[in-house]
Amino acid sequence: MGNFRYIAVDTKGKRTEGTLGGFTREEVSAELRRMGLKPVSVEPVRKKKREWKLSEINLSPPKIDPALQVVFFRELSTLLDAGIQLVDAISIIQLQFEDKNFQKAIGEILVFVKSGHPFSDALAEHKHIFPPFVISLVTAAEMGGGLDKILTQIAVYIEKEDDVRKRLSSATSYPKFIGMFFAVVLMGVMFGLMPKFADIFASFGAELPFSTQLMINLSDFLRNNLIIEAVLIGGLWIGFKAFAASPKGKYTIDKHIFKMPVAGHIIHKSMVSRFAKTLSVLIRAEVSIVNALKIAGNTSDNEYIKEITEHVALQVTHGRSMGGQLAKYTDVFPIMVSSMITVGEKSGALAIMLEKISEFHEADFNTAVDKLSKTIEPIIMGGLGVVISIIIVTLYLPIFQMSSAIH
Fold first, then answer.
1. 66-81 vs 100-114: helix crossing angle, rounded to 10
2. Cβ distance 149 to 351 under 8 Å?
3. Contact predicate 102/63, CB 8 Å
4. 224 with 256: CB under 8 angstroms?
5. What is the pLDDT of residue 21?
6. Which of 9, 97, 138, 334 is deepest in the core (most CB within 10 A)?
7. Biggest alpha carbon distance in the chain?
């Protein structure tokens, strides 16, 4: 299957251009007619040989804005609910997106579905866009019916996930900016201001206070060992990245990330809410508890939780209670969570209990983020004020002492 660049006109004679995926020129022309367009020109997109630039090299798949997925699934759900066939619904939606990567993916999904493959298999061909959670829900809907309702649930889920990511990013963006700004100022003091003060103090020939001499020595060391420092910092950064990318390293980080000061508590609340919400939606879609546990673990993007869910899923296949097994991992799943799940299992209202768990932890997460945003600014500003005051006093203390000696 390749991409075809087309030029077409609608019923009013308005010209439109774009790209569609297809196996042949005739197939793409037929698809354009189905969309109410008259093909003028349909030509295969040929890849031109050109020199690669370093800035163009991208080893990771292109990222798709979650908002595009929300729009896609909501509109698809609406069209299916209105009685429009899946192929026709995808055809209508495809040209609404300006993002070329997403439009190309939808075009390939359309061709895949038209050739007789299930919609879930078509989505599975683009796992870098649609996570296993989405594919599993669509598969369950295809077997049990109600695809339009499942698509609405998927849209709501992605929307909430995106909102959580944005809130976390917003809560950490200010500290990151202040930290970078402070680092720049500190480097300016050490590499620019401190040497000038050192020359002034040396011209007086007076004995300097310990704190001032310490800062001058530190400045000299930093300026005289730039290569060693660059190699050390680069080595540490590369080493950490390599460690975090390795299975053992990622597992270690994921296991202890909840113990981080301040941020660990927020990440924990977000993770539990996400896990419970995913599990609830899957169970409501009549996915088996074993498969739902495995999918929820994979969706968490946490190797430690993935290991836990796989172990719990194995125990559930042997007839044990999911809540009882989760109770063994209180560092991730608090007693309240496992107890509510146990009650849900016994009462037959597991999905409802999981929703309540998700809502409780989501509210707790929102409160923690709001509290962090309100308290972190004065703490950071106060800390910076103290550090800057120490630097100023350290630099000007010798001048004050010399002035007192003269008088």
1. 40
2. no
3. no
4. no
5. 65
6. 138
7. 97
What one-character-per-residue DSSP string does 335-371 give?
HHHHHHHHHHHHHT-HHHHHHHHHHHHHHHHHHHHHH
> For the chain, what is the mean pLDDT?
81
Cα separation, 118 vs 135, whole angstroms:
11
Cβ(309)–Cβ(322) under 8 Å? Answer: no
Distance (Å, rounded) from C-alpha 380 to C-alpha 377? 5
N-terminal to C-terminal alpha carbon distance within the chain: 89
Return the SS3 of 5. strand
Amino acid symbol at 399: I
The one-letter amino acid code at 73 reads F
Quick: pLDDT tens for 135-152: 877 887 777 677 888 888
Confidence (pLDDT) at 144: 66
List CB contacts of 286: < 8 A, sequence separation 6 or more.
140, 144
pTM of the model as a whole: 0.65
d(CA 110, CA 373): 44
- Report the C-alpha dihedral over residues 332, 315, 323, 164, rounded to 10 degrees: 40
Q: What share of the chain is helix, strand, coil (3-state, %, to 5)?
A: 75, 5, 20
Q: How far apart are CA 287 and CA 349, in angstroms?
A: 15
Residue 233, pLDDT > 50, answer yes
Q: How many residues are recorded in the chain?
A: 407
Query: Identity (one letter) of the amino acid at 341?
Result: I
Which class for 69: exposed (0-12), middle (13-18), buried (19 or more C-beta within 10 A)?
A: buried
